[in-house]
Amino acid sequence: MIRFSWAAVSDTGVKRPVNEDSYCARPDLGLFLVADGMGGHAAGEIASRLAAETVERVVAETADGSRASQPGADGVRQSDADRLRGGLVEASRRIAEAMEGDATLRGMATTASALLVTNDGPAVVAHVGDSRIYLLRDGSLGQVTRDHSWVEEQVRAGLLDRRAALAHPWRNIVTRALSGAEHPDIDVTTIALQAGDWVLLCSDGLSAVVREDQIQSVMRAAEDPEVLCRTLVALANNAGGPDNITVVALRIDAA
Predict the structure, then answer these.
(1) With b meaning 16 or more CB within 10 Å and e meaning fewer, what string describes 219-245?
(2) SS3 call for 200
(3) All domains of the chain, ordered by start, with CATH?
(4) Alpha carbon distance 150, 63 (integer Å)
(5) Hey, how many other C-beta atoms are within 10 angstroms of the C-beta on 97?
(6) Beta 31-38 vs 187-191: how paired, if at all?
(7) pLDDT digits over 162-178, tens only?
(8) Which of 48, 203, 186 is nearest to 110 (CA)?
(9) Which residues share a beta bridge with 149?
(10) Residue pLDDT, tens place only, 203-218
């Protein structure tokens, strides 16, 4: 039986007038998600909210296996990976519908990084964009997700080093997002959680301004998820807070 403690904090930051980040925290479902919206006016806020609300609804509706994983396959229980992926696909569809109904929303999009913790298998991660999920285990921090961004592609191609990527003027350009496409390209993986693990979900309002060694140091010293979240948000704001900051933290107490 997996037991965990959790907390979530979302902050507008220092320089942005509105918070276009959204998050979902449903410990009863084992569902946690961070979404970072993009678009003019309030469009980014709407896109990220649609993603969070839609994934929450789909995961809740499939919690008892009542929705089939394939059309016409009634009674077939969806895998947890299918549930998360299906929620993100549905979110992209809802974003498309919203843009069709309101011309001022056209061009909006959102990142989404989601974690589903269950008692009958490994935790599932589904991800699109550059919001991140980290795992701290035995004091070592690793990034579970891979950024879908222009600079990450350049780094992986050997055309840009990590240090230069941190300050590159195109570092905020994402190459994948939930933008209304019928078949969004979503990465899905699993984590076999262990007692003592910490899992951190965050928007790039944190990861773009706070170094990973700083995040690791704070997480190593953490005892309470709420204090951890607030400390990381404060670090981002102290570094200039150029973007909205959303942080969700889980401490795995038993697995």
Answers:
(1) beebeebeebbebbbbbbbeeebbbbb
(2) strand
(3) 3-254 (3.60.40.10)
(4) 36
(5) 12
(6) unpaired
(7) 665 566 555 677 889 99
(8) 48
(9) 174
(10) 999 999 999 999 999 9
